Amino acid sequence: MKTSIVKNINSYRKFVRNNNDWNKNGDYVVYWMQANRRIEYNYALEYAVAVANNLKKPLLIYEVLNVDYPWVCERFHHFILEGIKEHYLYFTNKSIKGVRYVPYIELEKGYAERLIYTLASNACGIISDEFPVLKIRKYNERVGNNVTVPYITIDSNGIIPLGVSEKDPYSAYLFRKVMQKYIVEALKYPPAKEPLVNLKNWGQCTLPTNFKESYAFDENLLNNLDTLLDSLPINHTIKKVEKVGTRASALEIMNHFVEFKLARYEDDRNHPDRQGGSGLSPWLHFGKISSYEIVDKVLSKQPMGWNIEESEPNGGKNSGFFRGHSYVESFLDELITWREVGFQFAHHRPDYDQFDSLPDWAKKTMNEHDQDPREYVYSLEELANSQTHDQIWNAAQTELRTQGVMHNYLRMLWGKKIIEWTGSHVKALEVLIELNNRYALDGCDPNSYSGIFWCLGRFDRAWQEREIFGKLRYMSSQSTSKKIKLKHYLNIYGS
Prior knowledge:
By secondary structure, the protein is an alpha/beta fold. The protein contains 20 helices and 7 strands.
């Protein structure tokens, strides 16, 4: 895999997956929408529009929902389907010349990938999303090798392009230095708000005959998502939640946070009773909203006369770089540094979800304390159903199981207790991944994996040694109850 010749920082977002020549006799350019499920502020779509204009070909947007991704269930499917329906209605009701939107919901495993090969047979080339984990990572590797036209993936995941770093960042401090070095330039080259506005009308996009024969999906089913869900071969025990998986919902949440919560973010973010976080993680994970537009919105709250170009690197410190309001800096450190360090790590490390990817000091101390006696040992399903002796932990797990989210501070405690209550550290990791990815709407996200592995020492340092944890950071429910406000939260989610 190689990056393009550098013209500006966004060239580090481009990954050329094969050496094939553009098929100038093709009927269309394909944008395969996998990770960044939005038509605004999307570098990949912007690039696909540019290619279509250069080749003077119409653009085909192919958005797929597979039934064979890990932990597939009603909860995730419904959230994604709401976004697909939003796109379907947009393209149905708004005439945009030169583009065709084709949604596809797999009714059987494997059909979506077959169809991308069918589309490739008549395509000039394929553009898709760079995303460094799980199914999408594997698709991009496999499809790039199997098509006879160019296959290019574009990173539209965050503010700092994945390609700027040469190796995995082993600490937030190290990545923060990278962020401080590149963010001014990155913000100079933002994604286009509406990339389709720039698409010229190169005629109607005609689908291959063999595609139509294999398509086997009635788009009218999008009008009744519950009926559609019932018909699919997915896990039907993990039900949908009330959160709406549309871009419109994401924008509403963002605007409410910036207007009413941002100014108190520093004080409120760690207190479950105050719900001071943005709550945008599910929509970020499924690409319904761009990091850039959140950053842009938040920076609009800086003092009069503030200018990002006057910021200078300050050695990776977590304060002082953005100047202005401290609550803005606090939030941006979470959104950019702590979110994107996980993307950078996974990009460079295929073993991002494996125990061996942990730092040597952490593996050593866990090995030394792996056989320490545990006062409590719970099974996976006891943990899943909040059946422990710990009221705070049970409440956090109940929120995760029933709402698909968990308060960020409690997520740290939740992970630390699982280390304490399982038979080994390797087993703890297995349980953490299973529970997180089974229930969390932002599960399987690089940032989500960062949270899990942080509990086991990734992006952290050695602390005072103690039983079971060794030199891993320790957290207790007793100290947590003294630090944060939980009364209202426990009334809602406690037993």
